[in-house]
Design brief:
The complex is a heterotrimer of chains A (365), B (520) and C (311).
Chain A (H helix, E strand, L loop, with lengths): L22 H28 L4 H14 L1 H26 L7 H22 L2 H19 L1 H10 L3 H23 L30 H18 L1 H11 L1 H6 L4 H28 L10 H11 L4 H25 L5 H28 L1
Helix pairs in contact in A: 1-14, 2-3, 2-13, 3-8, 3-11, 3-12, 3-13, 4-5, 4-7, 4-11, 5-11, 6-7, 6-11, 8-9, 8-13, 12-13, 12-14
Chain B lengths: L12 E10 L2 E11 L4 E5 L6 H8 L7 E6 L2 E2 L5 H6 L2 E4 L11 H6 L10 H15 L14 H14 L4 E5 L7 H16 L3 E6 L2 H7 L2 E6 L2 E6 L1 H6 L2 H13 L24 E8 L8 E8 L4 E5 L6 H9 L6 E6 L2 E2 L5 H7 L1 E4 L3 H5 L6 H5 L10 E2 L2 E2 L1 H14 L16 H13 L5 E5 L7 H16 L3 E5 L3 H7 L2 E6 L2 E7 L4 H9 L5
Parallel strand pairs in B: 3-8, 3-9, 6-7, 7-8, 13-20, 13-21, 16-19, 19-20
Antiparallel strand pairs in B: 1-2, 1-4, 4-5, 9-10, 11-12, 11-14, 14-15, 17-18, 21-22
Helix pairs in contact in B: 7-9, 15-16
Chain C lengths: L1 H4 L1 H30 L7 H19 L2 H25 L4 H24 L12 E2 L9 H5 L1 E2 L1 H19 L1 H11 L1 H6 L4 H28 L10 H12 L3 H24 L5 H19 L19
Antiparallel strand pairs in C: 1-2
Helix pairs in contact in C: 2-7, 2-10, 2-11, 2-12, 3-4, 3-5, 3-10, 3-11, 4-5, 4-10, 7-8, 7-12, 8-10, 11-12, 12-13
The chains are: A mainly alpha (365), B alpha/beta (520), C mainly alpha (311).
Chain lengths: 365, 520, 311
């Protein structure tokens, strides 16, 4: 007699991974993911047709430049490094039911901190320690930046969507102020921080141009996934996310956990900034804001907050953005098209999930 | 199936062979029902008997899969709540359907054409007329969140009247009321049917059915198992009606099964109290009453009942004892040690357990598997976690034991707990709270919303816990329940204890007097 | 520093503040309506962009600013329709779909603009202001507040219209019920889905108008990503104002002054990075939240799709 207690359709999707799927489940889920992506590619292709671009040529080019060409795949893998850190941070936050939409602010402050501290540290200590210290500094700054929304949410119950959004606006401006006024490299005319010499940056993998930040990013997201699914700490966070009142009832220290979630999530976003600077960019230019934070949110949703699936989606996102950038130069299709594609994938996938759910229900009835 | 052949003549609403299915169950199985003006038609049945589904179809929230509904003799599908209202069918739902942030007047105005200005003056005149004829007072300009549950219910009845309902459906309307409030509702229903209304009164309490009804239909597992028409109803005495209903509902047993009193466990008077509460104070908040000067002791093996109307601070008391709500004064001692400054988990570790009345809202995480829900209060503890890492085999092994021991009916350990029935979720909670280390257990409305079998099983568990030497605080709004298993019963009103009586012969009247504000 | 205090400078500053505030005001009012009815509308940035692009295209090809506003409103509503279908009708996650729509419209408007105008950014002629007689002659205040395009006065009037709507009309009651206790609205015979759809479509209309104003009056041209977070600011304003339209107006003006100050400082040649001033309104709001945050309460059913019979 479960009419009264049957969960509503909308509420069940978030913590789907808490029950381990069998192989058939996995296969079905894969189909449920690949199918919608194909549909989305077709729909987006129609938009290309409307603006007079051959979709097959476009997709072929994106695939070639983002995935198949040796240079392209290396760029794609390099691009993944910061995105993986951001995704890891979002997984922690979203699973704990906290909508940290302030990733971009945290990312930029982490980046500026790394850019400002790394050239300083390498002059006074061995390179590996210097980079470690720069990473640490970036993490700490981003963590501190998240403290205000965390405290407001933990002790005053202020909705974190507003506060993190505002902190991201603030953070973006603050990062610019820091670049222009505090850490500006006196040696250049354009406002930017001192550039970290290439030899002091994170090493590249083997003989490629791929940054070793990729390895760090993969490690981060896998660790986050295991912590969230296999440990007591992760379970506590998931309880807070799935039913905050049950968390209070069960005696979990919700305010403390809230602050921990924000700190971890922001810290990983700060690390993302640091990895991008120390691994790839070398400095921060004024008004630089790649807005990775907002772009990664869909990937995390698409992955249903599963770390391994998130790796796949981050890879896809990187292929699309690297390939899209090349296509923008060659085919004259602005790389903003990638945004359209991601958006359509997201919507079609959400729809597919809805249809699947409905189908299952009617079959049971 | 039924004792009478339903005659469409004279029926406001009639159901003919109505069937409704949900995934996995048949909620209503070809039900016939006739609802007539001037009659209180009682629908009696346990949880899961299909009462709510039936109301859902009458009020336009759900559509039957088979069969038809006749209104004034004509087959009429009721496709939306709006249409139900237009047909003159008004429903007072078990869960209040008023917007807490709006005033009473604004709530009564909800539903008007959207382009119109709300017609406040017209409404005021209408409400004055209705409340005069019913003898009740309606505070039109109070915010709904400031009203008591009883007042809210009256507002809902007035709302149905404002809309010219010819048929009023009352869904479990007495579960939130005082004995006195229940009497008043009965009198009000009488006046309403005298004005020519038809009333469908849903309850699972036999006494109310016998006291207020003109006609009784008994539902069981989605089927209508019998009906007592008015002629027979008038001919029988109250006890005869009750035993006839019992026979319909449960088969052979002739007595009211709830009345079968358990022998009270013996309490050793010389034993030191396990739980001592002295002058406990909690500040009132926007939507919850405060507590003042709460003092009581519970000895090992003793069950102290807390009676009172819902919303008088019982939940706050439970939460303050469990550590979920900050106390502003007073002391709480567990086996002699002061615990009032400790956190929820520290109190739990010392053996204080709180079995909440809000099973899905805070008791469990609905989307999590049954197995994990057994251990929500000990996340991180050995042997289920080692160095913070989950030991899945250990968890599953122990969860399997608990499922067997407490007879939890679940498809598997991995099933999300929200998919279980209320009774089985309650078993999960019982297993969790009564597990090793418990010394003092607070039960908050442990049988609320459970069917009879599960109610009796839960009471058995509570009694057994006391027998094991635990101190039990049993909060309930069901006086029968308290009388059946408590050693002493304290009555709570407006956030304080207004009296405590030993559960002796005269306990029923003394508790009843305390509940309506008289001295015991 | 004398330049800072001159009359001309001051009225230009305030004029700019109003111009900058109007899109935020419209976005905030729109978001407020959705939130009141229980829909968290993160897609509002996308709705503004659709309004900005279609508003610009409409005005550019027709030569009429008003027709531009109309196409802008239509653009915003088209996006809102998708949102209403996906999130209200079939109950998909509002945050996911909101972000998807924002990202999608960012890309789509940039893409369409590229193929329509390539790399040129044609400008619209400067709009004709509606000068309010006598009031416009007051020094400083006059040129700052009473020489705007007619749509500005309409937008301010809308604040009071919304106030009336929420307090005195049946629709206002319905909207609040849809956000606070949708089940109660349903059993009162009002379709919750329809009520919320009305709210979301109104949000789209207002956001579209805000976007069109931003492009056609504020900037006089369309550039990709022109809204630059204005929709998100609208969300912030709506959440802070909690159902009170007048508060949205004050909030929008506060942000408007800061945005205008940024431009004014540059004109005056004062050497502070604009970023510092851009931070001010956010700082002010954060400080307000830290001080008064506890009182922030949102509709009970915000973000939760309504399903009949589910609890």
């Amino acid at each position: 007699m479960s009419i009264d207690t049957a969960p509503s359709a909308g509420a069940t999707a978030l913590d789907a991974t808490s029950n381990v799927g069998t192989r058939r489940d996995m296969l079905r889920r894969l189909m449920m993911t690949v199918g919608p992506i194909l549909v989305a590619l077709v729909l987006a292709g129609c938009i290309l047709l409307v603006v007079g671009v051959d979709p097959l040529a476009y997709y072929g080019y994106v695939l070639e430049k983002g995935l198949l060409s040796p240079l392209g795949i290396q760029q794609t893998l390099t691009r993944m490094a910061p995105l993986l850190f951001l995704a890891a941070g979002l997984i922690v936050a979203f699973r704990a039911g906290m909508w940290n939409l302030g990733g971009d602010g945290q990312f930029l402050l982490g980046a500026v901190t790394a850019a400002a501290s790394a050239p300083f540290f390498v002059e006074i200590m061995p390179a590996w320690l210097a980079l470690f210290c720069a990473f640490l500094a970036a993490t700490l700054v981003a963590m501190i930046w998240s403290l205000v929304p965390a405290l407001l949410r933990a002790y005053q119950g202020v909705n974190e969507i507003i506060t993190t959004l505002m902190m991201t606006f603030l953070g973006t401006s603050l990062a610019n102020v820091l670049v222009k006024l505090v850490f500006r490299d006196p040696g250049t005319t354009v406002p930017q921080t001192r550039t970290l010499p290439v030899e002091d940056r994170l090493p590249r993998l083997f003989d490629t141009t791929i940054t070793s930040g990729l390895v760090l990013g993969l490690a981060a997201i896998i660790i986050v996934h295991l912590v969230m699914t296999r440990t007591a700490f992760g379970l506590k966070l998931r309880v807070v996310g799935a039913n905050p009142r049950a968390a209070v009832h069960a005696g979990l220290g919700v305010p403390g956990l809230t602050i921990a979630v924000f700190a971890i999530s922001a810290g990983l976003a700060g690390l993302a900034g640091a990895v991008d600077i120390i691994g790839v960019q070398g400095n921060v230019r004024a008004d630089w804001n790649p807005a990775y934070g907002l772009a990664v949110i869909p990937a995390v949703f698409l992955a249903r907050m599963n770390g391994f699936a998130a790796i796949g989606f981050v890879f896809l996102l990187s292929v699309l953005s690297i390939g899209g950038e090349s296509a923008a130069r060659r085919l004259g299709v602005p790389n903003h098209f990638t945004l359209v594609l991601v958006s359509i994938v997201l919507i079609v996938l959400a729809l597919a999930e809805y249809v699947d759910h409905r189908y299952n229900q009617s079959r049971k009835a | 199936m039924s004792n009478t052949t339903p005659s469409p003549v004279g029926d406001i609403v009639a159901l003919e062979g109505v069937t409704k299915r949900f995934p996995g169950i048949v909620a209503n199985d070809s039900i016939d029902l006739s609802i007539r003006p001037g009659e209180v038609h009682v629908l009696l049945g346990e949880n899961g008997a299909g009462k709510s589904t039936l109301i859902g179809m009458l009020s336009g929230l759900q559509q039957p899969d088979e069969g038809r509904i006749l209104v004034d003799g004509k087959p009429t599908p009721i496709t939306s709540p709006r249409q139900a209202l237009a047909l003159g069918i008004g429903t007072v739902f078990q869960h209040m359907m008023l917007v807490p942030t709006l005033t009473v007047a604004e709530n009564l105005l909800l539903g008007g054409p959207w382009w119109q200005r709300p017609r406040t003056e017209e409404l005021e005149a209408r409400v004055a007329e209705i409340s005069k004829s019913l003898g009740i007072v309606v505070k039109l300009h109070a915010r709904v969140s400031e009203l008591s549950l009883g007042e809210q219910q009256q507002v809902e009845i007035v709302r149905a009247m404002v809309r010219n309902s010819r048929l009023l459906i009352l869904d479990e309307s007495t579960s939130m009321l005082t004995p006195q409030g229940i009497e008043e509702l009965g009198a009000l229903m009488r006046r309403l049917v005298e004005q020519g209304l038809a009333i469908v009164f849903i309850t699972h309490k036999l006494k109310e059915a016998a006291a207020f009804g003109d006609r009784i239909s008994v539902l069981k597992l989605g089927r209508k198992v019998g009906e007592i028409p008015p002629e027979r109803f008038r001919a029988l005495g109250e006890q005869e009606i009750i035993s006839e209903i019992v026979e319909l509902m449960f088969g052979k047993r002739k007595d009211d099964p709830e009345a079968a009193e358990r022998p009270l466990g013996s309490v050793r008077a010389e034993a030191a109290p396990l739980l001592q509460v002295a002058d406990l104070e909690v500040a009132a908040t926007e939507n919850a009453p405060g507590l003042s000067a709460i003092s009581f002791d519970i000895r090992p093996g003793e069950i102290l009942g807390i009676a009172g109307i819902d919303g008088n601070g019982q939940k706050q008391l439970a939460e303050a004892l469990a550590g979920q709500r900050a106390a502003t004064g007073g002391s709480v001692r567990l086996a002699g040690a002061a615990i009032e400054t400790l956190s929820v988990s520290e109190r739990s570790r010392l053996g204080l357990r709180y079995l909440t009345d809000d099973r899905l809202g805070e008791g469990t995480v609905g989307t999590f598997p049954v197995s994990i829900n057994f251990f929500l209060k000990q996340v991180g503890a050995a042997p289920f976690w080692r160095n913070g890492v989950e030991q899945r085999t250990e968890i599953d092994r122990r969860a399997g034991e608990l499922v067997r021991e407490y007879d939890v009916r679940t498809p598997s350990l991995k099933t999300p707990v929200a998919r279980l029935s209320g009774g089985n979720i309650q078993k999960v909670l019982l297993a969790r709270e009564l597990a090793e280390g418990a010394k003092v257990v607070i039960f908050n409305k442990p049988t609320y919303g459970l069917d009879l079998a599960n109610t009796l099983a839960s009471r058995q568990r509570i009694g057994d816990a006391a027998q094991r030497g635990l101190a039990v605080l049993l909060i309930s709004t069901d006086l029968e329940e308290l009388l059946s298993i408590c050693n002493r019963i304290a009555v709570m009103a407006n956030g304080s204890l207004v009296g405590t009586v030993a559960n002796a012969e005269d306990a029923r009247t003394r508790v009843g007097r305390l509940m309506i504000g008289l001295a015991a | 520093m004398t330049g800072l205090l001159s009359e001309v400078f001051l009225s230009a500053l305030l004029f700019g503040a109003v111009t900058a505030a109007i899109p935020l005001l419209l976005a905030g009012l729109g978001e407020q309506m959705s939130e009141k009815a229980g829909v968290l509308n993160i897609g509002i940035e996308g709705m503004m962009l659709a309004g900005a692009y279609l508003g610009f295209v409409g005005a550019f090809y027709s030569g009429s600013l008003w027709l531009g506003f109309l196409t802008g409103v239509a653009g915003g509503m088209a996006v809102a329709l998708v949102m209403a279908l996906l999130c209200v009708r079939i109950g998909l996650n509002q945050i996911v779909i909101g972000i998807a729509l924002t990202l999608g419209l960012e890309g789509l408007t940039a893409l369409l603009h590229h193929f329509q105008f390539s790399r040129s950014y044609p400008r619209l002629p400067a709009p004709n202001p509606t000068v309010i007689p006598t009031l416009a002659d007051i020094p400083v205040i006059g040129p700052a507040f009473f020489k705007h395009h007619l749509i500005v006065y309409l937008a301010v009037a809308l604040v009071f219209a919304m106030r009336y709507l929420y307090r005195r009309t049946q629709l206002g009651l319905n909207l609040q019920a849809a956000g606070d206790k949708p089940a109660a609205l349903d059993v009162a015979g009002i379709d919750v889905v329809k009520t919320r759809t009305i709210a979301v479509l109104s949000t789209g209309a207002l956001a579209g108008l805000g976007g069109a104003y931003l492009a056609n009056v504020g900037a006089g041209l369309f550039i990709p990503f022109i809204t630059n977070g204005a929709g998100f600011l609208g969300i912030v304003l709506a959440m802070l104002a909690r159902g009170r339209p007048v508060w949205v107006l004050f909030g929008a003006l506060l942000f408007g002054v800061c945005l205008s100050l940024t431009t004014a400082m540059q004109v005056a040649g004062i050497n502070i990075p604009t970023d510092v001033i851009q931070m001010l309104p956010f700082l002010a709001v954060m400080i307000m939240l830290v001080l008064f945050g506890r009182r922030a309460s949102l509709p009970a059913a915000l973000g939760i799709p309504y399903e009949r019979g589910a609890r």
